[in-house]
Amino acid sequence: METIEGVATYPILSLLIFFIFFVGLGFWVLTYKKEKINEMSQMPLNDN
Description:
The structure is a single chain. The chain is mainly alpha-helical and about 50 residues long. The protein has two helices and no strands. The chain has helices at about 10-30, 35-40. The protein is elongated and about 60 Å long.
């Protein structure tokens, strides 16, 4: 694998994509409205 030109960029790119995705997901979860979370958590308990 060391003979392939630019092969070192793939692990760095993968780490950046992974990091950006999970930081974005964490930001989305922390800023999501609490009322909507409570509403969705009660959905399995509703008879409708």
